[in-house]
Amino acid sequence: MKFVCSKKKLVQAIQTVSKATASNPQTPILGGICMTAENDTIVLEATDNEIGIRCTIEADVSDNGSIVLMGRTAQDVFRRLPGEDVILDYSLEEKLVHIKSGPSNYTLLAMDASAFPHIIRIEPQEAVSFTVTNKDLDDLIRRTVPACGTDIRRPVFTGCLLDLNSGSVTMAATDTHRLSIKTLMISEGPERPRKVIIPAKALKEIQHLLASDVPTDIRVSCSPNKITFEMEGIFITNRLIEGQFPDYKRVMPQNLPINVTLNTADFLSAVERVSLVTRQSEYNIIRLSFSGDKVRITAKNPEIGEAKEQVDANVEGGELDIAFNAAFVTDALQAITGKEFLFQLDKPLSTSIIRETEDTSFLYMITPVRTR
Amino acid sequence: MKFVCSKKKLVQAIQTVSKATASNPQTPILGGICMTAENDTIVLEATDNEIGIRCTIEADVSDNGSIVLMGRTAQDVFRRLPGEDVILDYSLEEKLVHIKSGPSNYTLLAMDASAFPHIIRIEPQEAVSFTVTNKDLDDLIRRTVPACGTDIRRPVFTGCLLDLNSGSVTMAATDTHRLSIKTLMISEGPERPRKVIIPAKALKEIQHLLASDVPTDIRVSCSPNKITFEMEGIFITNRLIEGQFPDYKRVMPQNLPINVTLNTADFLSAVERVSLVTRQSEYNIIRLSFSGDKVRITAKNPEIGEAKEQVDANVEGGELDIAFNAAFVTDALQAITGKEFLFQLDKPLSTSIIRETEDTSFLYMITPVRTR
Q1: What is the DSSP track for A73-140?
Q2: Cα angle vertex B36, ends B35, B38, to 5°?
Q3: Which residue of B has its CA nearest to A80?
Q4: Torsion of CA A330, A336, A339, A340, to 10 degrees
Q5: B69-100 exposure pattern, b = at least 16 Cβ within 10 A, e = fewer
Q6: Which pLDDT score is estimated for B45?
Q7: Distance from the CA of A122 to the CA of which of A182, B35, B110, B262 falls in 20 to 30 A?
Q8: Would the CB atoms of A305 and B97 count as touching at under 8 Å?
Q9: Would you say B297 and B271 are in contact if contact means Cβ atoms under 8 Å apart?
Q10: Do A103 and B70 touch (CB under 8 A)?
Q11: Closest Cα partner for B13 from B60, B54, B67?
Q12: By CA distance, what is A76's nearest residue in B?
């Protein structure tokens, strides 16, 4: 194998795929980055058998071939190379990779690529696919992932449900105390509906990898046990979580009588300040008292003290004293994009809803806390 | 105690003194910040019995008094207060501090200030003092601290020697493998010479606290067991390390025959790149081969591979192959301010010197590594 390519492009590709290298690999090859040079491109791949990432870049290839470099070393070395270009030359007899860039010469040990678990596509007959912009995908992930659970003994709650229909995709997440749902209309949805659960960890990684100010189309495909995301030059695959996600449509409370309109930023910062006294305690409880044109927010911690704030509110349909885990409320408010939002409530122990005032495609259900 | 003051100034002062609060305090009060209101000022103090910091800010004091707040809580709460001003009111009967700023109201538990170990000055008859600018003090610290040892069983090497004379101050540090020395001329030095050893940890903290683009004079005073730094509004004290620092003047090699002039940035980046293959190994060894108008830099690691670079050099007085711990070389080069520097060498196992080409006030001695 021998090629010359742009150092910048190669470093970017290594940076991207290295997110999938195992940090404590079961076998050395899972800590490696596979490079395959063929027909004026280099394909870089890494996988920890959970997530897999493949990047393709242009190169001037003079000898086709494939090698695996240790991920950490590749990241360190290529990033620091002083030249504009990199010449990489693999000597099969020595099993050594010669790297040259400007005045730098490296000779690195390489692993045999034949043992590398290559990243493969979902067979077309198995795939259910749709196309989404990076901005819309980011929005789906950003508004739901924070509601995921972290208890690995209940794996279904550590991921987001992706509910695919011909005209819409819905993402939903719950840790059983709160449930966040975001729906997106799509023009060319799959013919067959499908529900899959994507690990939250994978979604965070994908959100990070696809972050860009440039609008890009992403092709998403699911098989029963795998999901893939594909865009210009990058292909990501991740295993799915097995199990049955709760029916999010059935648990939705209807006709909540108390409707409160609040300024999002004012209420969020007041909740954050008040919760400073309780956030180190186990339940992080804040009390909200809705009445007239105000909501009073209070918190108490016998070891630290107490905090009180009030925020202007438009309270319709009754008065109410209710308590929540502050983190659940701030997670919900961070998913709100409007300047104002709607808090819909019923009784002190009934599920409440936080939603946008106008956009009905997002909904955050939250269970109150019993305090006496 | 009751006062009104600027939130910004109070937060800054809390931020500064909180560097001295104990993270795992032996007694709760050492995790606290003492606030004393008196005569239109508030004095804030924190100490972990090793370092102590005192800040003084202006305030509108209506009742004198003194309290101790938990450091972590004070930091969290005051920083997030929404108003321009803060009203703080301590109720002696309740033992509670009422804090008001904009729409926020906090009531925090306070500790009794009578048990707080206040930060005190060195008695004038004990003090040996000099004045230095923040820039010069930063320079003394920056060029020597990296050479300190980290082995707490040999405490003398975990600090910097401050060698005070009437016309100069010298700071020196060594871990026995390298020795860094920086001398500064001063106009009004102490009448009595004194040598003290300041913990590296304290110097790093002080460097950080005194960092400012505004030139400021700092008054430094030493007693046999304590050092204090004083500038506008801030007073810092730290215990000294007991013991005898090696005589740095005696170990200085004389008349090194080989003199190499190198470009600082080029050589530093080449050394950093080459050491990428060895930096995870125990000794991090690089080999330097000086001859003609070049220095070749190489490193080898049987588990990763090898790296080679060469850099233009002006080599006078002979040729030499020599090996060093790469980290010691990069530490030295990071202390060099000139575009070029001088590497002075003798034999493969003799101590070498890295220094500025023109400024003789800085000197870095470095012991080579035996490689066969």
Answers
A1: HHHHHHHH--SSEEEEEEETTTTEEEEEETTEEEEEE-EEGGGS----PPPTTT-EEEEEEHHHHHHH
A2: 150
A3: B273
A4: -80
A5: bbbbbbbbbbebbeeebbbbbbeeeeebbbbb
A6: 98
A7: A182
A8: yes
A9: yes
A10: no
A11: B54
A12: B276
Nearest to A290 by CA among A256, A265, A239, A246: A256
CB pairs under 8 A between A and B: 91
pLDDT the model gives residue B192: 87
At A248, which amino acid appears?
Answer: Y
Whether residues B77 and A107 touch (CB distance < 8 A) is answered with no
A96 in contact with chain B, both atoms CB, cutoff 8 A: yes
Q: Are A264 and A341 in contact (CB under 8 A)?
A: yes
Q: What is the pLDDT of residues B254-310, one digit of tens each?
A: 999 999 999 999 999 999 999 999 987 778 999 999 998 999 999 999 999 999 999
Q: Specify the amino acid at residue B20.
A: A
Q: How far is residue B211's CA from residue B234's CA, in Å, rounded to a whole number?
A: 12
Return left, alpha or beta for B72; rule: phi > 0 is left, psi -120 to 50 is alpha, else beta. Answer: alpha
pLDDT value at residue A44: 98
- The tokens of A182 are what? 């975001």
Regions of chain A short of the pLDDT cut 70: 372
- Residue-wise pLDDT for A254-299, tens only, equals 999 999 999 999 999 999 999 999 987 778 999 999 998 999 999 9
Tell me the nearest-neighbour CA distance from B221 into chain A, angstroms: 38
Give the minimum alpha-carbon distance from A273 to chain B in angstroms, rounded to a whole number: 6
For residue A240, the number of C-alpha atoms closer than 13 Å in the C-beta half-sphere is 21
Looking at the partner chain, which of A77, A96, A305 has a beta carbon nearest the beta carbon of B108? Answer: A305
- CA dist A156 and A144 (Å) reads 14
